Amino acid sequence: MSEAKPKLGSPPDIIRNSQSEIRNSEMIIFNDVSKFYGEILGVNRVNLQIDTGITSLVGPNGAGKSTLMNLMTGLLRPSRGDITILGIPTDQPEQLFRKLGYCAQFDSFPRGLTGREFIQSFLLVHGFSRKKAEEFTVTALERVSLLEAGNRKVAAYSKGMRQRIRLAQAIAHQPAVLILDEPLNGLDPMVRAETIALFRKLAADGLHLIISSHILHEVDMMSDRVILLNNGYVVAEGNVHGVRDEMEEHPMQILIRCDKPAKLAARVFDKDHVVEARLHDDRLGLFVKTRDADRFYLLLNRVVAEGEINIESIAPVDDDLSAVYQYLIGSEGSSS
Amino acid sequence: MSSSTIDIKPAQIVKQSLPWSLWLRQIRAIFRLEIEKNFLGRRSILLYLLALLPVAPLVLLAPFTPPGREWQDFNQYNMIFAIYYGGLILRTVVFFGCAWIFMNLFRGDIIDRSLHFYFLSPVRREVLVVGKYISGLVTSIILFTATTVLSMLLLYLPHFYSESSRYFLDGQGFWQMLTYAGITILACVGYGAFFLVVGLFFRNPIIPAILLYGWEWLNFLMPPLLKKISVIHYLNSLAPVPVYEGPFAVPALPTPAWIAVPSLIAVTVLVLIVASYRIRHMEIRYGGD
C-alpha cells in the first residue's frame, strides 16, 4: 500500500484545513446568504468575509443594511446560506452573545428601569455574578459618559443619552464583535467625535466593529473598509480607495496645483490613460481625469524631477466614499 | 468619554460552571426583571382591578346579611362559596387574569419592542421561556390565591363570626380553603402555559382566549370524552363541594386527584415544550408584529 506524500512546499490537507478553520474562527463569514420576507427581497446572495477593524455598511433606505445586521445577530434567520461569527453559527445564541454585542436601531427599552439597572439586569441575564455585573456596568457607563446619569430612569433620557445607553449595553459584556446600527444618530457633534474615538480604540484593541451610518464623511473617516449595499445586493466591498481604483468606468479626478498648468496639460494629455485635462478657473491648477492613477502619479514624479513645472499640491477629487457612493448607487436615494 | 482610561479587550472564553447552575442564575435574573414588570408595570393596574373584583362585593356585603334563606343558614355558605368561586373567581378572574399576565410575557415585550434584549443575550431560549413562565406563575399565584382566601374569609367571617372561626380553626374550613387555593394554583399552572403559547402564536391573542373561554364555560354540556379536553374539568374534579350545573348538564365522573393533578402538569410541560420550540425559531421583526 503506497501512501501519498504531500508535495514539498505545500502543507498537507489536514494542516491547510486547520489553518482555514483558525482563520474562519477569527472572521465574520457570510456564505451565499439570502433573506426574503415572503416575496420581498431583504438581501440576496451575500458572500462576505469580515476581518477585525471597523467595517461600515452604507446604502440607501431599504438597501438591506439592517437586515444584514439582524441576520448577523440571529434576530433574523437566512432564507438561504449560512453565517458564522468567529466560527459560531448565528443560531446558537448561548455561545454567540458571549462574543457579540449589538446596538440595534430600536429606540425602546424595558419599562421602568434606570440606565444602571438596564445594563446590570441584562448582565445578570448573561449569567455574570452580581459583583462582576456591577463592575462591568460601571465600566460601560464610564465609557459612554453616563456614569452620573446612570441612576436616572431611561425614560427620562434624551435621544442622545438613549443612544449612548444602548451602546453601553452592547459593550458592557466586553464582546469581540460589536454591531452598531446607526450608532451616531441623535448624538451632538462633541459626543459624535468622542464616540468615533471610542470605536477607533475598540478596533485598535482587535474588535470587529460593524457599523451602519448615513453620514458618509464620518464613515470615510473612521472605517477600515466599507460594504456598499443597494436593493439587497452587495455592490462593492473593501477599502474605499481600493474600491475606487477598481471603478474603471469612472476615471479618477485629480487636481494638481502648479505654476504652469497649461504646460502640464500639454505634457500629460497625450498619455493614453489620461481621459481629460482641464484648467482650473483660477488658472493655477489642472483637473485631470485618468483611468490609471498609479501611472499618472509616476508621470507626475517625472515632471517634478525634470524641474520645469513647480507642483504645489496633488489632491484626488473623487477618491472618497461620497464619490464611490455617487458612482455606484447614484441618485436613487440618499444614504441612510 | 474616557476611552483612554479603560481597556476593553475581546471577551475570552470563560469556563462556565455546570450549565444547570448557569441556567438557574439566568432564570433568576429573568424572573427578577419580569416580576417587577408584572407587579409594577402599567399593565398591572388591570390585574389588580381584576383580582379585587370578587373581593369588592363581599366587602360591601360585610356589614349586613343579604336577604334570602341561604344567607341565614351557616351550612349553606359552603355552597354559596363553591358557586361564587367556580363562577366568578375561577372561570372569570383567574382565567382572564392568567390570560393578561401570560399573554403579555412575550407579546407585551414585542409590543414594547424590547424582546430583542433577551434575544441578544447568551441565554437558551428555553431558559427564557422557563424564566418568564415562572415569573407569570408566581405573579398569578400570589394575586389569585390571595383573592381566593380573602373572598372565602370575607364571605364567612362577617356574618357568622364565631361559627366561621371554629370552622376555619378546628373544622374542615381550613382544608377547604387550602383545597380552593390549590385549585387556583393549578388553574394558574394550566391556563398560564396555554396563554403563554397563545401569546407566541397569535398576533391578536384575544380571539383564541375568548374561544377557550367559551369552551370552558360550555364544558358542562359536553359529552364526557370532550370534557376531558379542558382545564376546567380537572379543576372541577378537585373541588371540595360539587356544584349542581343545571338540568342540561351532561353528568360525568370526576377525574380522581391522583390523575387530574399529574395530567394537568404533564399537559403544561408539553405546552411549554411547544412554546420553547416556537421561541427557538422566532425572528424579531417588530414591524411585522
Structural notes for this entry:
The complex is a heterodimer of chains A (336) and B (289). Chain A is an alpha/beta fold and 336 residues long. Chain A has helices at residues 13-24, 65-72, 93-99, 115-126, 130-143, 159-171, 189-204, 216-222, 240-245, 261-269, 293-306, 321-328; strands at 28-37, 40-50, 53-58, 80-85, 88-89, 100-103, 177-181, 208-212, 225-230, 233-238, 252-258, 274-279, 285-290, 311-316. In chain A, the strands form 3 sheets. A 6-stranded mixed β-sheet of chain A has the order 6-7-8-3-9-10, with helices on both faces. In chain A, a hairpin with a 2-residue loop joins strand 9 (225-230) and strand 10. Chain A starts with 12 loop residues before the first helix and ends in an 8-residue tail after the last helix. Mean pLDDT of chain A is 87; it is low at 1-7 and 332-336. With 289 residues, chain B is mainly α. In chain B, 69% of the residues lie in helices and 0% in strands. Chain B is built from 13 helices and no strands. In chain B, helix 5 (77-111) packs antiparallel against helix 7 (125-156), helix 8 crosses helix 9 and helix 9 (173-201) packs antiparallel against helix 12 (231-238). Chain B is globular, with a radius of gyration of 22 Å. The model of chain B is unreliable at 1-6 (pLDDT under 50). Chains A and B meet through helix 3, helix 4, helix 5 and helix 7 of A and helix 1 and helix 6 of B.
